[in-house]
Amino acid sequence: MLLMPKLSATLLLCASLYAANDADVVSFLKKGIGNNPNISNLQIDISGKQNVSGMRGWQAYFVSIEADVKQGSENRHLNQNGTYFVNGDVIAPELVNLKTGERYNDTITPAFSPSYYNKENLISGDVNAKNKVVIFSDPLCPFCRRYVPEAISYMAKYPKTFAVYYYHFPLAQLHPASVALSKAAIAAEQSGVDNVTFKMYQVDINPNEKDEQKIIDAFNKIFKTKLSVADLRRSSVVKQFDFDQKVVHGMMVNGTPTVFFNGEKDTKKMKYKDVKVQ
Q1: Residues 6 or more apart whose Cβ sits within 8 Å of residue 276
Q2: Which CATH number do you get for residue 227?
Q3: Are residues 138 and 199 in the same domain?
Q4: pLDDT tens track for 53-101
Q5: C-alpha to C-alpha distance for 35 and 8, rounded to whole angstroms
Q6: Edge-to-edge strand order for the sheet containing 59-71?
Q7: Which pTM was predicted?
């Protein structure tokens, strides 16, 4: 369930904020979203702002929204990020350039935080390479399975040119099996297995599989390893997996593959091909 689009998009289109400041934006969002009787313990924070290039006066507000949501007889705790656009006394959940058709929600993101360049996420290249490339991926995402192995294989040939960082982002609702598969990859890497990120895209498993043993068996078949379901529960594996999800959330990543090139989102995911390699 998405809190912001479902509960506030219509409300916020061209709504007046009277030359808003940060506190006004938070107050307005709280009032709009909080009016839903199924929402409680609502917390809204602004994590950053960015001027919208080519759209004079507009700023993108990066917003974190956390709340408890009642769905039928169940209560769910949701933590979501989103972008709102503010210009003087107007706020909108979506901004589109009429001339180019560019939807700024898809292209504007926070700059990649240097604190997220974790050595455990470096899968190839020298840490001091000229270019830093970040990949968020689900190993069972069809596009990822075509794009990621080719991209990392190419960049791995040029370790002084590309430092490639990989962050597991299994889309559990679309591909349930990707969660266990991602954790198996982390466990294998921590055990010293080589080329895990590249080879895990070869694992043949139904994306809807939820039996962790079957997923582990499929993984072991490709890697000739002897991982067990218990390995997925190792504290070091859980710590790394949770860190990756923290980065996903902090960088407002919503789909796979998502690529950042030298700190900025690469919407076409091909900037690495334009680099003169050495």
Answers
A1: none
A2: 3.40.30.10
A3: yes
A4: 888 899 999 998 899 999 888 888 888 888 999 998 899 999 998 888 8
A5: 10
A6: 15-16, 90-92, 74-87, 59-71, 39-51
A7: 0.83
